[in-house]
Amino acid sequence: MKALIKVLIWIAWISSAIAVAFVIIGIIQGFFGRLVHNTEIIKYFYVADSFFLLTIVSLLFLHLGKHNKE
């Protein structure tokens, strides 16, 4: 069970770091124009939203799992 907790914590950290990176890329693209052709600025925020949701779900699973043990 401890291995699952460590994996979920790593997934949460990695997915939140990826989401922050996509938000930064979206902001940079908003200021300087398109970095990659055929992409819209909003697509970066959609991807970041998905990674933030993955982070929230994994942290909620960890938080709710701790209350079930007590």
Indicate the structural class.
mainly alpha
Outline the biggest β-sheet: none
* Strand coverage percent: under 5%
For this entry, what is the oligomeric state of its chains?
single chain
What report would you give on this structure?
This protein has 70 residues and is an all-alpha fold. It has one domain (2-69). Helices cover 86% and strands 0% of the residues. Helix 1 (2-32) packs antiparallel against helix 2 (41-69).
Task: Describe this protein with a few key phrases.
70 residues; mainly alpha; 2 helices
Summarize the structure.
This protein is mainly alpha-helical and 70 residues long.
Give the helices and strands, then pairings.
Blueprint: H1 2-32, H2 41-69
Helix pairs in contact: 1-2
